[in-house]
Amino acid sequence: MPPARRSVHVRLFASAGTAAGRSSVELDVPAGGIGAAELVRGLAAAHPQLKSILRASRFVRNGRYLTDLRQRVRPGDEFSVHPPYGGG
Fold first, then answer.
1. 46-39-14 Cα angle (round to 5)
2. What is the C-alpha separation between 23 and 53, in angstroms, rounded?
């Protein structure tokens, strides 16, 4: 049996993907998961160029916008970063 997945797939949209130079990253998390705020701090530490973008972004876990960053993100979850979008 393969080991349980211990990472979260993070999708980076728009300016977040541009700043990181990629559209997604994998972040290791403990088996019991971590709070979304902690995940965002880890993302900023791993990719310092995202810090200012993350402050203005909205976050989605498994297709649902998070209203509380204390919610847990667990291994195998998909977490998305949605910075403010421009256009018209």
1. 70
2. 14
- The structure's pTM equals 0.89
CA distance 78 to 3: 18
What is the length of the chain?
Answer: 88
Distance between terminal CA atoms of the chain? Answer: 50
Domains and CATH numbers, the chain: 19-82 (3.10.20.30)
C-alpha span between 19 and 28 (Å, rounded): 21
Assign 3-class secondary structure to 33-53. Answer: CEEHHHHHHHHHHHCHHHHHH
Element (H, E) at 64: strand 64-65
Place of tokens 């880890």: 42
Give 12-36 pLDDT, tens digit per residue.
999 999 999 999 999 999 999 999 9
